[in-house]
Amino acid sequence: MSDERTTPLRPQDPRELGPYELLGRLGEGGMGTVYLARSAAGVLVAVKMVRADLAPDDAFRRRFRSEVNRVREVPPFCTAEVLDADPDHEQPYLVVEYVDGPSLAEVVEERGPLTSSNLHSVAIGVATALTAIHGAGIIHRDLKPRNVLLAPGSPKVIDFGIARAMEPTSAHTGTDQMVGTVAYMAPERFGSDSPLTPAADVFAWGGVVAYAGTGRTPFSADSPPATAARILTQPPDLSGLSGPLRELVGHALEKDPANRPSARELLDLLITGPQRPAAAGAALAHQPGLRIAAEEAQAVTGYHPARQLTAASAPSNLVGYDENSIVTQPVPTSPAGPTTPFTHGPAPRRPWVLPAAVVLLVLAVLAIGGAAATYWPRNEGLGRTATGGPSAAPEPNPDAEADANILVDDPLQQERLWHAKTDPGEGASCSFDGGLVVRREKSGVFKCRGPEDAEPDDLQAEVGIRLLTPDSCASIWMRFSKYRGYLVRVCEHNVYVGTHKSSKMAVYKTVPLDDAAIAVGAPSTRITVSIVGETLEVLRDGELVCNVQVSDKDIAGGQVVLGLYTERNAPADGPYAVAFDNIKIWSINS
Predict the structure, then answer these.
(1) Which of 142, 201, 222, 410 is catalytic?
(2) What architecture does CATH give domain 406-587?
(3) Alpha-carbon span 290 to 278, nearest angstrom
(4) 142 flagged as catalytic
(5) Hey, what CATH topology would domain 1-98 get?
(6) What is the pTM of this model?
């Protein structure tokens, strides 16, 4: 018996561990293998078996036994409950609750960023788990989307606080290795003498929530060393998040750990704060299990008084569901401005000065390039911004980079790169009147003539749109050539993404705009469409609308085209009209 996340046992795998029958593999990490198993009572559980080369180490077994006792104290508030362990078995193992649900990474990879209510559910659930974990005197150390499982009832955080065998003091670990995933590691973790505190988990919470809401990590770069450099020196890219949640994520991603809120403060602000996001209330209302767990976790008021969580005493994770690294969706190339000042948590206490030793560390890592990268966990964020060069020196000016890649910049106020045209037979026209206005008397489609230059496959187009009459959709074709391309149709109540290869559009994804409908006659709305490889992304006024995987073999490349495509089931007789203004098109160096 297994689920879709389970792979078959290998010939060298045991068929049982203690009283547990092993059914299949759930994953494999740096310290062992995770199995789906069945208890003697017939209950499905996850069994984490320590790898064979660690088992003979008596010091490791002592640490393992100690850490098992610690994690047993973590209440099961949005965490996978620890059920059993045998530190004295020939191959030590830990048994935890089996969580029947995909990881956050899997969901975002397959479906794109979460909706607002689901995003707040994850934010609350992970903050609840960290409150419980920190309240038991434990630091997670490797919080990331693959360690957040979206179970029925509430999210569950897994793989917290087990053993320290991977620390530099272990004979099995080199000094150039670190427990954790670079994209979610706090700045202070890159210094060899920096104390490890719960604030590092709070930083990871910010990265996880940003990833869930945008489909990318907030410090995305093209390699783990470049990601580390951005974490140390650059502000996070939080475009795609908005409102109080964006403020809270920005606060959690402060460089100085002293300026971050605690997990309990995160939780309080999310569920009972004076400016609690409305979506958080909706998440709690529709998930009573999450609400109960959060309320119970709020009863945890502090850390165990006998424990001081430091680099020397803090526990690490045992193993994780360390499957193949995911590929995140592309990120907007518009530079992220400074995060909105956070005013609801504790006041900032002091500026954080980047230690010179840390800068030198990153410079050294970047200088030796590929050789160093083998010692870093794979980065879960594959961004497309042109950052992360061969050193940790100040990055190039993003505006200058964007200008260097710009292909088209047209206000669309008069004939220039786009042209007026009329088709009396169709009762349609493209003209200029405060923008490029596309009209059609009957329902259907009409495209305007634009530049015919050969354009790269990977590019981004940003343009202002207005809907001038009901049932009219502003339409943007990407990679359009020989009467076929990908089409983004922006209507009053929905955004449609799909292919246009004949008289009809084949829709890949429909995104309802709900309360954010685009009113007919409203001022211009900025729409950004990016396409990189087989991923197409749509933003509205800088906020993510959707990510869609596109891989039609008949569409190989072409131009950006603007036009009108009427809404589905629009009356045969119009008139229909939309307007475009201020278009910019950039090439993307993926």
Answers:
(1) 142
(2) Sandwich (2.60)
(3) 16
(4) yes
(5) Phosphorylase Kinase; domain 1 (3.30.200)
(6) 0.55
